[in-house]
Amino acid sequence: MTYYDLHTHTRASDGMNRPAENVKLAKEKGLTGLAITDHDTVAGIREAQLAGNELGVEVVPGVEISTRVGDKDIHVLGYFLNIDDKKLLARLVSLRRTRELRNERIIENLNQLGIAITLEDVKYGLGRELRPDESLGRPHIADTLVRMGAAADFRDAFDRYLAEGRPGYASLPRISPEEAILWIREAGGAPVLAHPGLYGDDDLVISIVEKGKPAGIEVYHSDHGPEDEQRYLQIAQQYDLIPTAGSDYHGVRGGVVFHGDLGTRSVSSDTVEKLRQAAGTGRVI
Ligand code: AMP
Ligand code: ZN
Ligand code: FE
Ligand code: FE
After folding, report:
1. Which residues form the Polymerase/histidinol phosphatase N-terminal domain (predicted)?
2. Residue nearest to atom 4 of ligand 1 (CA)
């Protein structure tokens, strides 16, 4: 049997581990391979690939792009894209710029609530320099709120301040899922709609599938229940989409693994080959 976890984060975005550590963990857990899918960046891929070559673990280059429809954040995964593609890299820079402005808004909101937090506090919490090609997100802000004593723990920081609809939350206009799908195809990759069960709106999921025509849909995800899996597997069959799986591993925060542990959701090499094919033959309309 072959096992690939197709959704993992590293410290290039809001994961806790170095890319090489995810690869080492994959090896320890007996996986054949894993994808590195950081938010709006491919900065972790190279290190992971080097570690993968050394340890004999296949590293699938990936990304998770933040998009928006109405008042919902929608994530689009991309696999086997060319991570040196100039246009892709410039596009990711623009997404990270939007992210920075969004983070500033969140900080302003928190300040209005009487919490004396700054972006410098958040960056200080990393314990190292943030590289310009890495991305900062709400989990880093949550960690800082916990450190400051403004929240009891990571979950409390989201529940009280940072989750959608909470008083610290802010959002800015972002690209649409259809645009992200096109960007991934133009970079030679296979686009996959991430964790459809998290949006609470299957009509929206179907409209994204019909309009954007991704290559796949993430049927198996740590935050999906068995009913979600059944529903999305049916949608995958109906629309001829590749069903994918990923843990959305972010590492350990305060002793807790959020989403899922690395390797707890996986696909076999058949699925990986289908994605590779879809990436190679991706039509750009
Ligand atoms: P961002 O892209 O900066 O908006 O942050 C999104 C990330 O925050 C996701 O990948 C999740 O890991 C995390 N996240 C979002 N909502 C929650 C929540 N309600 N509780 C815990 N973590 C969350
Ligand atoms: Zn994340
Ligand atoms: Fe996501
Ligand atoms: Fe993710």
Report:
1. 4-69
2. 138
pLDDT tens, residue by residue, 23-52:
999 999 999 999 999 999 999 999 999 999
Residue 282 confidence class, pLDDT cut points 50, 70, 90: low
CATH of residue 159's domain is 3.20.20.140
**Would you say residue 156 lies in a domain?**
yes
DSSP readout, 27-59?
HHTT-SEEEE--BT--TTHHHHHHHHHHHT-EE
Residue 285 is assigned to a structural domain of this protein: no
Rounded distance from Cα 253 to ligand 2 centre (Å): 12
Q: Give residues (CB < 6 A) around ligand 1.
A: 14, 39, 66, 137-139, 158, 163, 250, 258
Domain carrying residue 264: 3-278
Place of tokens 């049927």: 219
Distance from Cα 100 to the centre of ligand 4, integer Å: 18
